[in-house]
Structures are given as structure tokens and as C-alpha cells.
Amino acid sequence: MKTKSALAFAEAHRNENLDRLISFLSIPSISTSPEYQPDIERAANWLVAQMKAMGFNRARTFRTPGHPIVYGEWTKAGKDAPTLLVYGHYDVQPTDPDDEWLSPPFKPTIRGENIYARGASDDKGQLYTHLAAAEAFFGAGSQPPVNLKFLIEGEEETGSTNLGPFVEEHAEMLRCDVAAISDTEWVNPATPTIVYGVRGLAYLEIEIRGPKSDLHSGLYGGAVHNPLQVAAEMLAALHDEQGRVTIPGFYDKVRLLSDEERAELARVPFDEEELRAEVGAPALWEGEKGYTLLERTSVRPTLEIHGIGGGFTGAGSKTVIPAWATAKVSMRLVPDQKAAEIADLFTENIHRLAPPTVRVTVRRYGMADPAVIERDTPPMQAAVRALRRGFDAEPVFVRSGGTIPIVTMLNEELNVPVVMMGFGLPDDNLHAPNEKLNLDHFYRGISTVIHFMTELAGQS
Amino acid sequence: MKTKSALAFAEAHRNENLDRLISFLSIPSISTSPEYQPDIERAANWLVAQMKAMGFNRARTFRTPGHPIVYGEWTKAGKDAPTLLVYGHYDVQPTDPDDEWLSPPFKPTIRGENIYARGASDDKGQLYTHLAAAEAFFGAGSQPPVNLKFLIEGEEETGSTNLGPFVEEHAEMLRCDVAAISDTEWVNPATPTIVYGVRGLAYLEIEIRGPKSDLHSGLYGGAVHNPLQVAAEMLAALHDEQGRVTIPGFYDKVRLLSDEERAELARVPFDEEELRAEVGAPALWEGEKGYTLLERTSVRPTLEIHGIGGGFTGAGSKTVIPAWATAKVSMRLVPDQKAAEIADLFTENIHRLAPPTVRVTVRRYGMADPAVIERDTPPMQAAVRALRRGFDAEPVFVRSGGTIPIVTMLNEELNVPVVMMGFGLPDDNLHAPNEKLNLDHFYRGISTVIHFMTELAGQS
Predict the structure, then answer these.
(1) What is chain B's pLDDT, residue by residue, as a tens digit (460 residues)?
(2) What CATH number matches the domain at B2-198+370-456, 3.30.1130.10, 3.40.630.10, 3.40.50.720, 3.10.20.30?
(3) What is Dmax (Cα atoms) for chain B?
(4) Scanning every residue of chain B, which has its alpha carbon at the shortest distance from the alpha carbon of A431?
(5) Distance between B54 CA and the closest CA of chain A, angstroms
(6) Distance between B325 CA and the closest CA of chain A, angstroms
(7) How far is it, in rounded angstroms, from Cα B170 to Cα B165?
(8) ipTM score
(9) In 3-state terms, what secondary structure has residue B365?
(10) What residues does each domain of chain A span?
(11) Helices and strands (H and E) in chain A: how many
(12) Looking at residue B33, what is its pLDDT?
């Protein structure tokens, strides 16, 4: 009865939910660049205001050495009701290259079935479904069947640096029976997808210093080692011809898939040509030989170059041997690799590769360990039933290639079952121009979360 | 007598010459970027005004599809007097990285024995010695012993694109007996240096396009080939472990040095450790095995990477597989390599190296053929005597690693003997922050040019 009325309330208030999502998406809460600090604060305060207006008994921001963490709770469902911790993040990726956006990234725009804006899918739109679901119970004159705790950070896109210490310090406040996260995508538009694993991340930057200043390439070419050439040669040496990462020890702790897991993954409905057309590359990459594409993007570790700095990249030509070069590199990790160990192996390897003609420094950015979650638990089955009802389709379980640092903290350290029940689609353009969220998924996502809360409480 | 009075006039007007050099150096005539177009015009007009004020019978700018070419002449030395064509360029390199300049690049600043500014050595300061020498004759109440033609372009730093057609079209106007260029450096601070060869240049840009937009590296890493990885691997493949360029056919037309030339080069006073300390690299590069450092930087061809674009190089981290990568690459060429042929070989090689996962385009920027000039000619010997007098030291002959496109045009096509008599020093920071010119070299350079004009006319 409560569920039905909450569903009806959400249905009747689609426009209000869309308006509020638009106001949330309009805040350029980019976490990677200090100039957006005021917007980070605005986004955090916006969430606090929403939760207060909704009737939460507590909602506030917590200062950290970085961006504030938003926490809100409503714990009046009773002692027997389970407690659900919802995690999300209000920060977003940078928007460059800006000239490739068809509408401004922070002017949310509806085109066709989608709303376009930075953060639409990752993660503001998905996070908002949980707020809207809770509100639907209140709005319908009843109350949620579970106790609710919302933990919303502003540093997910920069490696969740301050989240770990916060979770440790506030373990009592965050105590819960289950955690839910909507920050993932479906394998295809027809198949609701529960993610039961995330890859870890080790993000590093290499700095290569050669001469003390830029030099004329005609006068010094052949005498002074070009740091960009050194960078290209070291970066090229990080993969072999089989697409494998060459860092000694890199694969040592990678857990092999069971035959059953491989068979299951092979059954996931997936069309490589569709993916190729969607990304627009002339051909997909074979990557690490001996593994299927879905294996390579979820259960195998990878290494990517994100940018190479130094020298001259402006319009026209400049004949310079640059004084320095930098390279940003990250590795996606799988169980049982540890981010700190892999960062050590990477750093040792770079120093081994570096020629005596340059000085090399390696810096660390975000670090996160990978996680895999049990699937045959009551919360996971509650999510299966909720997705079935919300979308009239049978969900699948997959491991994601992405990284959500909180998952490891909750699952491995606090022993809380984590349900990753996302509403994104594979073509949502995460971290890219023209990020979007399908509006039908947004509305059905709200219904699904209503069902999920009900299922968790065993009241269906 | 004329010579003595001209020398005395120059000596007495050091301050005026310095002031005028400062005003010339204050114009940010950067040729590589369209935003400096008005400054390019200012620099060209400044030169015209100088020549008019000095009493030249003709001085004007010529429009080209690019930056204007300045031409001025004084041809009243009589039919029997030889005609000297002075070539220089009023354009300068970009100034980045700007934060490494100790004083602003276009606010000429004297520190110690030097004047610091972009263009101080390359080429405004060196070019100005010829103007000041001519003026010294007029100022002393007489006139230069040779007919003078000044050809000063504004595109040397962008490959002299429009100079070739201009020289062809105005062959009659530019007719001369000898050409002089002061746009080169000495091998060390004690040894006046005449350059008798320049390397050619083929400057290209590779564009590598993979996916149609930037992608999330967690979700697509392992499935989509990273264009920056492709760039690193292709660029790394351009040198082998012997430091040789691997482009098939690259060395086919390289003229081998005679034993005599090698022996002569080995006698050039040169200290590798001094060079290493000057450039500040932890060690010099061995480069192409089997050749000495001076050979590698002058008589052997090289390949340099100038910049790698694409992805994210800002502060912090961004986990992106970029849609594209670019690389700016140039090759310095030696006789009998031809720039157009080498550009073809490079392009073919890049397409051969490109994997099917990306689309690759190669664009051409500046192209210039190499040149070597006869040394036992009267104008070269006139330069030897002039340098001896100007600097009280014995000059040496070397081939430069740099590129001056006009040299090939004059020497190979118009059959004019070219004398490259530079006043720069090896630590002038050409194309780099804190470019400078030694002031003693500036004043002695003026005297040397006065001697040179006299020697050419056979009036010493």
C-alpha cells in the first residue's frame, strides 16, 4: 500500500523531479580544479537543503582537508527496520574539450529521450533517484520502510582521497545493514545490470627532466636526449606486442576467473560491432591477447596514458627540444592486486627504464583497491526483484571496469554488503563531451529504488 | 681612412645603437601565432624607417601571402664596387614557457655582459650589426665601400614559406655578388666561427584519431586503442637502439664526410662536459652511434619530437582515453637529403606503423633543403680577415646544425656565395627562455661588419 502510493506520487511529480535535477546539474561542481571550489560548496549545500526540506532528521556537511562530505539521515523507520546507506557523489569530471559539447555542459538540455549535462549520469542523475524515492514515501503521506543514511562525497572524480579517513572516523554514524550505489551502467539498453565488482585504480604521473631549459633542436639535436622521446620510449615499453602490461610483477596477484564465471560472462548479451559503432573507432583493440573484450574491460587489469605534457603543441611549428616531459598514466586493477603495491611496481619499473640522460620523478594521484561482492545475498536478490519490477526485464550481474573507491571500503573493510544498481546506459558519454541520462531510466530508476526499499524491508 | 672613421663613429655611438636595438627587441614580432600580426607589421615598418633615416635610396615592405618582406638598398657605391646582399629576419620564436624568463621577453634587460630578450641573438641583434655598420660609414661623413641590399623576412621561424617565391620573382632586384648572414653562433666564446653549411628541415605533424570522443578509461580500457599509446609506440619506433632513425631510406642520400673533413671537425676546440653543464642535463645523449657529438649536431641528420597533444595534461587527474593525439616532429637534414623526399618517406613510414584501430593523417609544416658552401672563395676569406680584426682571434669553419632556408636558395639556386658570419654564443638560449646577446659581441660585431665591407671592396 505504502509502495503503491509512493510510486503514484513519484509518477505524479515527474516534472518537479526533473526541475530539481536540472537545478542540481546546473552547478559546475568540478572537483579536479580549484577554481570551482565555490560551486563544490553550492552543490553540497544544495543536497543538504533537499534533505532538510524532505523531512530528514539530520542533514549537514562535514569539512575535510578537501571537498565537504554531505551526510543526511532519516532513522524513524523503527529498530526492526533495516538501515540502508546510500552512497553517491556530487562532484563531476572536467568538461574539456568544450567545443565538442552540442549544448553547454552546465546548461542541462533535453534532446530526444535524454537530458544532456556534465554529471547527468555520473552521478547526479543516478544519485537523485534515491532522494526522489525517499521523498515519494513522505510525499504520499507515509514514510520509507527502511532507515536511510545518505553519504555523498565531492571527491569521487579525484580519487576519494578524504573519504576513507571519514568513513573510519564516523563508523558508528554510518552503521548500516546494506549499502546501495547507483553510479554504474547497463551492459545494453534492454538489460538491467547489477554490478558485483569494481576495478581498483592507481593513477601516477611521470616527470622527465632533461636540459635545464628548452633548446634549439637544430643546434642540440643529436647531443641532448629529448625528454619527449624518452617519454615516448618509456611509455611504449609499458605494453608488449601481446597487449600485456610489461611491468614486472603486475599480473602476479591477479585472481583468475573460474570457468563458471567465464561462461557466465560469455552469456552477457553484448555486440562488439555495436560498441565499435558507438565509440566510432575504425576498429576495436584486441588488447591483452587470450581474453574476450568483456573480460578485458572488467576482470583484467589495464594501463592507460591520459596525457603527455611538455614541448610545443600550439598552432604552427616550433623547433624545440623541451626541458621536460610529463605523462599521466593510470592502471585499472582487479582482485587481488593492491593499488599501493602496483604503484610501487610501476615506479620501480619507470626508474629501471629511465636512461641516465634524464632525471625522472613519479608522483601518485588517486589510489583505490578493487572489490568483488557476493551475489547470492538477500540485498542482492532484493535488487534483482526491484529492477524486474521497475523495468519489466530480467537483470544480469557483471563486474564493471570502472572504479568506485567507496565500494572497497564498505565491502572489504566494514563488511557491509554493497548493491550497485545503476541506471546509466553504455552510451552516456561519461567523462566525455555530451554526457547524458535517459529520462525514462531516470523516472523508472526512482520507481526501482522505491521497490528496492520495500523489498529490503520485506514488505512487498 | 673611410674604415677608420666608420669604426670611430660606431665606437662613439654605442649608446645610440644599444637604444635602437632595445626598441627593435621590444616589438613582440612572434611569427608563429596570428595574434601578433600587428607586431609583425610594426617590426617590418621599424626596419623600413631605420633604412630610410640612414639614407638608403630605397626601403619598403613587400606584401606576401604571409608576413611582409622588408627590402632596402643603397646602390651608390659605383658600378665597380661589389654588391652585398644582407639577409636577416625580424620575426622571433614564441616565448613559452613564460614563467621561466627572469625578465619579460619583450622588455629587453641588461644583466652582466648581456642583453636579455626574445630575438636578442636570433636574429634582431645580429641583423642590426649590419644596419649599424652601414650607418657608421654615412655617419662618419663618407659612404659604404660596397653597394648594399637588405632582404629581411618575417617568416624564418615558420619555415620561410613565402621567401622562395619572392626570391624567384625578384631575382633582378636581389642580384648581388655575395650574400652575408649573421644568424649563427660560435663554437665557444673564444673562437669566431664561420658557418659553411646548414642542415635542412622537414617539419611534420601526425594526427591520430581513435574513438569519436573522449572515453572513460575504466569502462573502455582494454577495448578501445588509446591514441596516446599509439602515438607513444609509433614515436618510439622512429629510433632504434643505436640512436639511428629507422625510417626506411632516411640515410640513403646522406653524403659521407671525407676523412679530411672529419679530422678538421675533430680539431674544433670543444668541451663536451662544458656543453653538458651549460644545458644542465645529467648526461649528454650518445645519439647515433659511431659519430662524435659535433658530427651528430652538424653533419648527420636527426629527428626530434617537439610536442604531443591530446588527452589531459592539466593539474590533477582525469581518467580519459582521448579521442585523438597529435605529435609534432621535425627532422634536420644534411646534403644530399631533400626535404620533400624525406617528408614523403616519413609519411609512408607513419602510415605503415599505424595500427588499424586509428585513423592517421600527416601534415607538413616548414620544409628546407640543406646546404654546404665552398670555403676557399674571396668572400669567405674576407670574412676570415674581418673576424680576425673585429675580435683579435682566429676564426674556424664549421657546419651548423640549424636551418636557414635562404642559404639553400641563394647558394644552390642563385649561385651566390653565402657568408654566415655570426656573433652569437652557444649559451644564447635560442628558442628558449632567457635568450640573450653578449653586448661586447654586439659592438665588435658592428666593427667586424665594417671591416667585412671594406675587405669585400678590396680597400683595406
Answers:
(1) 799 999 999 999 999 999 999 999 999 999 988 899 999 999 999 999 999 999 999 999 999 999 999 999 999 999 899 999 999 999 999 998 899 999 999 999 999 999 999 999 999 999 999 999 999 999 999 999 999 999 999 999 887 889 989 999 999 999 999 999 999 999 889 999 999 999 999 999 999 999 998 899 998 999 999 999 999 999 999 999 999 999 999 999 999 888 988 898 888 888 899 999 989 999 999 999 999 999 999 999 999 999 999 999 988 888 899 999 999 999 999 999 999 999 999 999 999 999 999 999 999 988 889 999 999 999 999 999 999 999 999 999 989 999 888 998 898 778 899 999 999 998 999 988 999 999 999 999 999 999 999 999 986 5
(2) 3.40.630.10
(3) 82
(4) B216
(5) 34
(6) 9
(7) 9
(8) 0.84
(9) strand
(10) 2-197+370-456, 200-254+301-368
(11) 15, 18
(12) 84
Whether the pLDDT of residue A159 is over 90: the answer is no
Question: For residue A441, which phi and psi values (nearest 5 degrees)?
Answer: -65, -35
pTM of the model: 0.84
pLDDT in tens, B75-127: 999 989 999 999 999 999 999 889 999 999 999 999 999 999 999 999 999 99
Q: Do B313 and A320 touch (CB under 8 A)?
A: no
Interchain CB distance below 8 Å, B322 and A300: no
Residue B247 carries which side chain, given as an amino acid letter? Answer: I
**Residues of chain A contacting residue B224, judged by C-beta atoms under 8 Å apart:** 279, 281, 284-285
For the record, the C-alpha cell of B179 comes out as: 650574400
- Whether B91 and B34 have beta carbons less than 8 Å apart is answered as no
Cβ distance A326 to B313 less than 8 Å, yes or no, reads yes
Considering CB atoms only, which of B218, B284, B309 is closest to A401? B218
The answer to whether the Cβ–Cβ distance between B201 and A319 falls below 8 Å is yes
Chosen from A95, A157, A220, A238 to mutate, greatest number of chain B CBs within 10 A: A220
8 Å CB contact of B100 and A211: no
Q: Which residue of B has its CA nearest to A225?
A: B285
Catalogue the active-site residues of B: 91, 156
**Which among A223, A239, A287 is the nearest to B285, CB-wise?**
A223
What pLDDT score was predicted for residue B459?
A: 64
Q: Across the interface, which of B100, B229, B282 has its CB nearest the CB of A213? A: B100
3-state secondary structure at position B219: helix
- Measured between beta carbons, which residues in chain A are less than 8 angstroms from residue B310? 307-308
- Shortest alpha-carbon distance between residue B338 and chain A (Å): 16
Burial class of residue A45, CB neighbours in 10 A (0-12, 13-18, 19+): middle
pLDDT 10s digits, A384-412: 999 999 999 999 998 999 988 899 889 87
List, in order, residues 6 or more apart from A102 with CB less than 8 Å away: A111, A116, A434
Class of domain B200-278+298-368: alpha beta
CA distance A154 to chain B (A): 15
Look up residue A226 and give its three cell numbers: 629529448
CA–CA distance, A411 with A429 (Å, rounded to integer):
28
Does the distance separating the beta carbons of A305 and B308 come in below 8 Å? no
Cβ separation B222–A366 shorter than 8 A: no
> A311: which chain B residues are within 8 Å (Cβ-Cβ)?
305-308, 328
Sequence letter at residue B365: Y
Superfamily of domain covering A2-197+370-456: Zn peptidases (3.40.630.10)
CB atoms near residue A313 (< 10 Å): 18
Q: The CATH number of A200-254+301-368 is which of 2.120.10.30, 3.30.70.360, 3.30.572.10, 3.40.47.10?
A: 3.30.70.360
The closest alpha carbon to B370, from B396, B397, B338, B344, belongs to: B338
CB-based contact A434 B185, cutoff 8 Å: no
Q: What residues pair up with B309 in beta bridges, in sequence order?
A: B326
| Interatomic CA distance for residues B124 and A159, integer angstroms | 50
Interface test with B, best of A188, A213, A365 (most B CBs within 10 A): A213
